[in-house]
Design goal:
The complex is a heterodimer of chains A (168) and B (704). By secondary structure, chain A is mainly beta. Chain A has 2 helices and 11 strands. In chain A, the strands form 2 sheets. Chain A has a 6-stranded mixed β-sheet with strand order 8-1-2-11-10-9, with no helix packed on it. In chain A, strand 6 and strand 7 form a beta hairpin. The N terminus of chain A is likely disordered. Chain B has 704 residues and is α+β, with helices and mostly antiparallel strands. Chain B is 47% helix and 22% strand. Chain B has 25 helices and 22 strands. A 6-stranded mixed β-sheet of chain B has the order 14-18-19-17-16-15. In chain B, strands 6-8-9-11-10 form a 5-stranded mixed β-sheet. In chain B, a hairpin with a 2-residue loop joins strand 8 and strand 9. The longest helix of chain B is centred in the middle third of the chain and has 30 residues. The two termini of chain B are 57 Å apart. Classes of the chains: A mainly beta (168), B alpha+beta (704).
Chain lengths: 168, 704
Amino acid sequence: MEQLSNTSGNLANLPADGDETKIVTEMLQYIVIRLGDEEYGIDINFIDNIVRMQHVTRVPKVPEYLKGVINLRGEVIPVMSLRLKMGLEADEITRDSRILILKVDPEEGSVGVIVDEVKEVVKLAVDQIEKVSHDGRSDRPIYVSGVGKNGDQLISLLDLSVINLEDN
Amino acid sequence: MDVSQYLEIFLDETNEHLQNLNTQILNLEQNPDDMDTVNEIFRAAHSMKGMAGTMGYKRMQALTHDMENVFSDVRTGAIKVMPDMIDTLFQCLDALQEYTDNIRNTSDEGTNDNEPIIKKLNEIRNSKGGAAPAPAAEAPKEAAPEAAASAADGEKWNHIAFDESQVSVMQEVLKSGKKVYGLNVEINADCVLKAARAFLVLKALEEKGEILVSDPPTQDIEDEKFDLDFTLVVASDAPVEELIAAASAVSEIAKVTGAPLDFDKIKTADVEEEAAPAAEEASVSAAPAAAATTAPAPAAASAAPAKHNDKKASKPIATKTIRVDIEKLDSLMNLVSELIIAKNSLVSASTGNNASGNTNSASFNEQIEYLESVTTNLHESVMKVRMVPIESTVSKFPRMIRDLSKSLNKKMELYMTGEDTELDRTVVDQIGDPLMHLLRNSADHGLESAEVRAERGKPPVGSIFLDAFQEGNNVIIQVRDDGNGIDPEIVKSKAIERGIITPEQAATMNEQEIINLLFLPGFSTAKKVSDISGRGVGLDVVRSNIEALSGEVSVKSQLGVGSTWTIRLPLTLAIIQSLMVVVGGEKYAISLASIETIETIHNSDIKYVQNEEVINLRGTVIPLIRLNKVLENESKASDDGAMVVVIVKKGDKMAGLIIDELMGQQEIVIKSLGKYIKHAKFISGATILGDGEVALILDVNALL
């Protein structure tokens, strides 16, 4: 019993010993994912779960980016390809591929998105985030709500309304 | 005072009362002298008034109050039931319905005072004044028993048998300069949580003073061991009015009376005639307006008809129900679903074991069979909890037909059977609109005018029938009329005129096929558009509504004799028996309810009609659908010329679905595909198989 509480105490202390103890100002947490060569940040508040790639049951006669449905602990969850949805090349499923279960709008229920890799969790202060201006020259930035600067690393912050857009 | 938490109960009960009033007033129109009906209406109006008052809906309260007055006069025989009075009463109900709808949508009753209706109600009361005691004379008569009643129970505290210690405590308190009051609190008869109300009253009073004596004891009050009222002796600095106000502020309190305790009266059993004036005044002014003026009235008044009428007023037999939040039922249902999935995975595990020759499999199978029977029973009982009689939906129809009869100037009568047929709650809630549409259709287009009926030798009063009954795993609801029926020729020319079919197509169609065109979008055969039906949106909406409930609708008609609309609905929606099939390596479920037979055919059996593949199955020509083409995958069936065909039907239509492989029958739990997948044609849902894999459920209705 003593052992147990000791261990958990150590665990709880661990992050506090780390270098990121200055969480006082408004910090937003993002999960960094990789799609192709680019890294994107997804607001952690919208992420319900991260699961390994598994068999996806194909649903006929739906847009191509809807890959099908999976069974997540007894619930049927639709899964979409974030790459196809964003107009990128089709997914290449590897050992690193993951399905992020998102809950963007409680009315709409959960949806899974396939990503190439889940890298890390970053904390960004509000002043580390720069809004993206839509100059209309490229159509890519509509999927990005801002850019986060984490040291040298630049993370495009994904605008999750992308998954709610009707067929494009 | 926050009453929002009671809003749901209020709305539910108001709807029940409105429904009841509609039925009873219809009844009254047929039997104007039926005192039982009058009493029932009075009671319903009275409860509604009380509820509206408690919830603070003043306009609704005012209207029900005037309605109640009319019936109070009818009861005393002061006025007689007249046809125009019935019309006014129906208008009144419509207005109340409007209030209720407003409340449901905005939690506010709206601003319509409905003065014309109130005026009419008052006119009814006044115009009949000559035939009965003048209304002026009535008022005091009404007030008299009330005053007497409140005087009688107004000073209940004087009946309490105080023991000596209690009396000495009271005297102590008096000496300390505080006042000692007797209070009597009466709770609304329809209050659901009496103990909770009483507790709130006690709490409110304790803030103002000290409760010295309580009859029954406070413990009993908190355990709800009291009737409708309880009596308290309270010591306080505050004036009695303040205490009464504090107690009255609690909702669902019918009446609070109170007065300084008169030590001379204590223990004297007899109640003096002169009630303490203070108490009298206070009771009227402070009690919630809703109940204060009338609470004792029903008691006094209902005694009167009982004397006239030897037989007791037949109270409707209250169905013993509890209101259960549908979400709670859903979660119970989900649990059952999970149990079934767990059972299915056990089953698949056991078949695996058998293959590897496990010796324990015999007892294992026994256990599984046991689990199977338990889950099936559990499923059935949960389903039954969700079932409600369709009565709640259909009971509004007689009223609607009556109104239609007047506005269309056609004589008609609605006959209903099987109102007690039960269906899933969700289905019952949503079947109302399609049924209403079909009934309106029958009334407007179906039934002929009186002249035509006379010509055809039909009885002058048209008949519309609404029959509901159970048939296997389905519930059938039929709307039938003895009217004109559907003229295929008119339908045909309309369809050609609107470009729905070409004249060539029309020539090849039989009568039934032509009549079925009615269900296509944008079809209305009414020669003139009326506000009853024939607005172009109609039968196609009826059909899509019913299909959304996994049901189907069909029509049979004979020109000049009448038409019959048949709605077929599944008993349950959440769990179905299905046939599992494999197409192109993917597993699909087909609802057993839509499967006719399963056939094995050979390539050589396939014939071609208009370039479509068909088979001739025992004399019936059935079109074939290659599922792998529809579902866009590669068939993996061995190419030996034999193939499995599942014959499915939808109404009279049949089709043969060519599949790769049969897996067997399975009970499946229907899950939605989620809102992100909106346009999955041919798929009605998904289910989770025993091995955790997701299989899709084929929408046979969309395939045909």
